[in-house]
Specification:
Elements (H helix, E strand, L loop, with lengths): L7 E2 L4 E6 L5 E7 L9 H11 L17 E4 L1 E2 L2 E2 L4 E6 L21 H8 L15 H17 L3 E9 L2 E2 L5 H4 L9 H16 L6 E8 L13 H10 L4 E6 L10 H4 L3 E2 L2 E2 L7 E2 L2 E2 L4 E7 L9 E4 L5 E4 L10 H28 L10 H8 L6
Helix pairs in contact: 1-3, 1-8, 3-8, 6-8
Length: 378
């Protein structure tokens, strides 16, 4: 089962996130972790620091250390095999910023749907729909990334586009050196100026985040509803700010002929990668390339038309601490969700092997291991 509740995700490796943006804490419980594995809390904190607010003047100024604490499942630096609970306590809530608009629905936000669905919503910011919920995903994803590195798999991302300005080159060394996490130094200043202009006008801009998953073997992913690309799309679309996901050539493939879009196959595998690293929902060994359309931040100070809880027309201007562009902080979240999917797919593949029934007792398991876990990497 992919998820047991709306707040859980995964099959063999499962996570459950909890907490609200202005509540006491936000955290995650990880289940399905084997005992005796080294647990590197410092490496997890590095990923948390990449996501936290207040990193630059181009994101929300909310000051949160986002220091992660482990409550269970780890003893003397190693996993016990029991659920691991990690939590971050909120320290800098300013719920009063939302008092004036507590009865109004912010356009583009989840206020209206939460209220209509549940009959109640948390007026202190976004509650469960707030981007702050994503720190739970990053904590768990950081663990998954550690395990994947040991398997020869890397997951890394950047912003391909900010405010409609697209970068053409990928300079990985530049990504973590600039506050927008873009990869093309030639267009950074133009992208930065667009974010600053939107902020000055009380507005916001969006972007396109791109994640590369490299080092995968051939064979991860399970037809028909467990396709690797389908699970990646689901995981990325579950991020609140994301409104679209594509793999490989994505939507551009709809404007091509088959002869142009198909990836020719050679002895070493695909000769190009418009498929984005999957065929039939199964990894090909080529890099899996995922792109996410990140919408402009919904909470803006520029006046907008709205309604109140009684359906009466009104006007709203959202003040407080919000990102003029959320894309820089989406990058580590997108990496985390992709890592969770891939690590879960890897463990699920192992579980299928380990629990195979009598019909496959005579299989050559060394060959299966080579196919699914040890195939040459592109």
């Amino acid at each position: 089962m992919l998820f047991d509740s709306p707040s859980s995700f995964g099959r063999t490796f499962r996570i459950l996130s909890f907490g609200e943006s202005h509540g006491a804490a936000v955290g995650v419980v990880m289940d399905g972790v084997k005992p005796g594995l080294p647990f590197d809390l410092e490496a997890i904190q590095v990923e948390m620091d990449r996501r936290r607010p207040g990193q630059s003047d181009l994101v929300t100024p909310r000051k949160e250390a986002d220091q992660v604490q482990v409550l269970s499942g780890v003893y003397e630096g190693r996993t016990t095999g029991h659920p691991i609970a990690m939590v971050v306590f909120n320290e800098n809530q300013k719920s009063g910023d939302y008092k004036a608009i507590s009865e109004l629905f912010r356009p583009g936000h989840a206020d209206l749907t939460y209220d209509r669905k549940y009959g109640i919503r948390d007026p202190r910011g976004g509650g469960r729909s707030s981007g702050r919920e994503t720190l739970a995903r990053v904590a768990a994803g950081a663990w998954a990334k550690q395990q994947l590195v040991a398997l020869g798999v890397t997951v890394r991302g950047f912003n391909r586009e900010i405010a409609g300005i697209e970068g053409k080159i990928v300079d990985w060394a530049f990504v973590e050196k600039n506050p927008l996490r873009v990869a093309d130094p030639k267009v950074f200043e133009a992208q930065k100026a667009a974010v600053e202009a939107a902020r000055a006008e009380g507005d916001s801009v969006g972007g396109v985040c791109e994640v590369w998953i490299e080092g995968l073997p051939v064979g991860l992913g399970d037809p028909a509803f467990g396709k690797l690309d389908g699970l990646l799309a689901l995981a990325c679309m579950s991020i609140g700010a994301v409104k679209g996901v594509e793999l490989g050539s994505g939507f551009a493939s709809a404007r091509r002929r088959g002869s142009e879009n198909n990836d020719p196959l050679g002895p070493e595998g695909p000769e190009k990668n418009d498929a984005g690293g999957t065929l039939g929902g199964i990894s090909t060994g080529a890099p899996v390339v995922v792109r996410l359309a990140v919408k402009p931040t919904s909470s803006i100070s520029k006046p907008q038309r709205t309604i109140d809880r009684e359906g009466r027309a009104s006007e709203i201007s959202t003040h407080g601490r919000h990102d003029p562009c959320i894309s820089p902080r989406v990058v580590p979240v997108a990496e985390a969700m992709c890592a969770l999917v891939v690590y879960d797919a890897w463990l699920t593949q192992q579980e299928l092997r380990d629990t195979a029934g009598p019909r496959v007792e005579e299989w050559d398991w060394e060959a299966v291991e080579a196919l699914f876990l040890g195939a040459p990497r592109m």
